[in-house]
């Protein structure tokens, strides 16, 4: 099976973390060959068994969405579909936003859909038929919020001002009363400095940003840290194949102003074992995601007969 991947507006680092790219060599040994082309390259001139368009499509994120570059891609893609009607078109909804789907501009009935963090209730993703949606996640590396130093803060959140206007600023202000909370226009720390700070926190606060999910959730889970997230995040499949539950795999708040009381309650010595158990269940759920096996099953599902 030969798969062509067309990219536009996606960083090399982001592309490398996608499971079909990260595991490309192993997939090739399984008979799934994946080639990557920039949108202005010659990928649209070749016939493939399947094509995957990886382009920035969330127009509500002005820092990344460039209509002058995306619209010509849409035009070339429409021509490609007409020229190669037998190519399986994989619709990729890759942004951290479950609702509404952002890849509908590329979709036609019958197309298989790769969806990052879909809601548990797939019917919310209309017009995509439920049976065509395949949950996936990027490949995450080693734990980063780890340190031999003692904990300094009950909770921590350091992030940028993305998502609903003023929302993350409220989260940061509330978190600051029980630990470290900062929300700025640009990243206030280098990555290594940020991770070192989070390693000194007992609970990692993970609010939504442009979408209901973030790498912060995964960094916390992989590091064995309890996650405190908001209700919107609790309604999506953050770890493919896992049904995560509040109070079992993570903690949840409805409004940012609830954070101080929730953190103070969960950091009581009498709840230490319970909090540790939640962190461990979250870690095990994250470790259970096998990006390679996920891709093997997906490509087997869509392979031309």
Structural descriptors:
305 residues; six-stranded parallel beta sheet; five-stranded parallel beta sheet
Task: Explain what this protein looks like in three dimensions.
The chain is of the alpha/beta class and 305 residues long. Strand 3, helix 4 and strand 4 form a beta-alpha-beta unit. Helix 7 packs across helix 10. The longest helix has 17 residues. The chain is elongated.
The helix fraction, in percent, is 25-40%
- Cα-based radius of gyration, to the nearest Å: 20 Å
Helix/strand class = alpha/beta
- Percent of residues in beta strands? 15-25%
Number of strands: 11
Biggest sheet strand line-up: 2-1-3-4-5-6
Mean pLDDT, nearest integer?
92
User: Helix count?
Assistant: 11
N-to-C CA distance = 11 Å
Order of helices and strands: EHHHEEHEEEEHEHEHEHEHHH
Outline: elongated
Biggest pleated sheet: 6 strands, parallel
Which spans have pLDDT < 50 for at least 5 consecutive residues? Answer: none
Could you give a short description of this structure?
The protein is built from 11 helices and 11 strands. The protein has 305 residues and is an alpha/beta fold. Helix 7 packs across helix 10.
Itemize the secondary structure elements and their pairings:
Blueprint: E1 2-8, H1 12-16, H2 19-22, H3 24-29, E2 33-38, E3 50-55, H4 67-83, E4 88-93, E5 113-116, E6 133-136, E7 153-160, H5 167-176, E8 179-184, H6 191-199, E9 201-206, H7 215-222, E10 227-230, H8 231-234, E11 251-253, H9 259-266, H10 272-287, H11 291-302
Helix pairs in contact: 7-10
């Amino acid at each position: 099976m030969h798969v062509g991947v067309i990219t536009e507006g996606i960083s090399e680092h982001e592309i490398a973390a996608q499971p079909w790219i990260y595991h490309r060599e192993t997939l090739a040994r399984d008979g799934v060959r994946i080639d990557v082309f920039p949108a202005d390259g010659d990928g649209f001139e070749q016939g493939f068994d399947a094509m995957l368009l990886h382009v920035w499509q969330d127009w509500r994120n002005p820092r990344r969405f460039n209509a002058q570059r995306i619209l010509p891609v849409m035009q070339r893609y429409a021509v490609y579909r007409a020229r190669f009607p037998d190519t399986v078109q994989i619709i990729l909804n890759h942004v951290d936003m479950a609702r509404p789907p952002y890849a509908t501009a590329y979709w036609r009935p019958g197309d298989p859909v790769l969806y990052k963090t879909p809601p548990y209730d797939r019917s919310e993703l209309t017009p995509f038929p439920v049976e065509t949606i395949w949950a996936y996640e990027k490949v995450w590396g080693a734990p980063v919020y780890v340190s031999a130093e003692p904990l300094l803060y009950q909770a921590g959140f350091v992030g940028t001002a993305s998502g609903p206007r003023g929302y993350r600023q409220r989260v940061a202000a509330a978190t600051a009363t029980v630990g470290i909370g900062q929300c700025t226009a640009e990243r206030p720390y280098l990555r290594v400095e940020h991770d070192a700070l989070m390693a000194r926190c007992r609970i990692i606060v993970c609010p939504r940003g442009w979408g209901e999910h973030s790498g912060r959730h995964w960094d916390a889970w992989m590091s064995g840290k309890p996650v405190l997230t908001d209700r919107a995040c609790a309604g999506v499949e953050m770890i493919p194949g896992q049904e995560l539950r509040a109070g079992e795999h993570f903690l949840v708040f409805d409004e940012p102003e609830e954070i101080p009381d929730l953190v103070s309650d969960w950091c009581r010595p009498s709840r230490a074992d319970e909090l540790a158990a939640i962190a461990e269940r979250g870690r095990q759920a994250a470790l259970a995601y096998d990006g390679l096996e996920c891709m093997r099953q997906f490509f087997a599902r869509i392979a031309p007969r």
